[in-house]
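Blinded run. Sample ID left blank on purpose so nobody reads anything into the name before looking at the predicted structure. Input follows.
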Amino acid sequence: MISFVALPLVAAMVLVGIHGYFGGIVLRRGIIFIDLALAQWAALGVLIGHWLGVHSEWILFGMGFSGTVLAAGILTGLDATTKLKHGQEATIGVMYVFAMTMAMVIMSSTGIEGHHLTHMLSGHLLFVTPKEVAFAAVLYALIGGIAWRLHHQWALATSSKPWNFLFYALFGLVVTSSVKMVGILLVFSLLVLPVLTAMLWVPTFKGQCFLGWALGVVGAILGLTMAMVFDIPLSLCIICAIMAFFFASAVVKTFRY
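Blinded prediction complete.
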């Protein structure tokens, strides 16, 4: 049993690390739903690959990443909307709806089986392979190193198109890999909930990252325990655990002050 759950737990911890950092960035920049949009474009790229009869995992990954790069280019190019109040976030929402609509159109018009939609939302965290976890760990370590090195140059910038595109593209690469393993719902939850909870308690970016990582790891352990006890999909159990941390913290802070 321990060997069965060890790999999903390691995968969850790897995901918590990279998403905790990017979560702090997107919350500070006010682009909270960027991961949903990029994740949906990645899923759309993979879905198009299935529609075309592609079976190679590497080609499907490349098509998913191409979808996020295309979305990054569109978001970077549509800078007129950033001058409007809440215009950037609205544009991100439009990008998400468009990608989801196109995915549904493809599925309904081509007869692609519905399990692709289920996989797109919840992934297969409980059945990840060592190869997937190793690839994700190496990829996230590289991206994390780049992000840490260029943190002050591009992560918090909002006016430079090249830096914005690099941010979206690297984040899209993370999302493409993580959505394949755990689905859109858990990717969004790991990105936002741990850091949002940490922001209620810690004022600094670094402190928020460390507390967010701790909450994500504990949430993964609790989620794995719930999944084993109640026979509920692991991704959903982790979401419930970290969501409980957020609501509990929000209630405590509300009534404490």
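Unblinding after everyone has recorded impressions. The chain has a mean pLDDT of 84.
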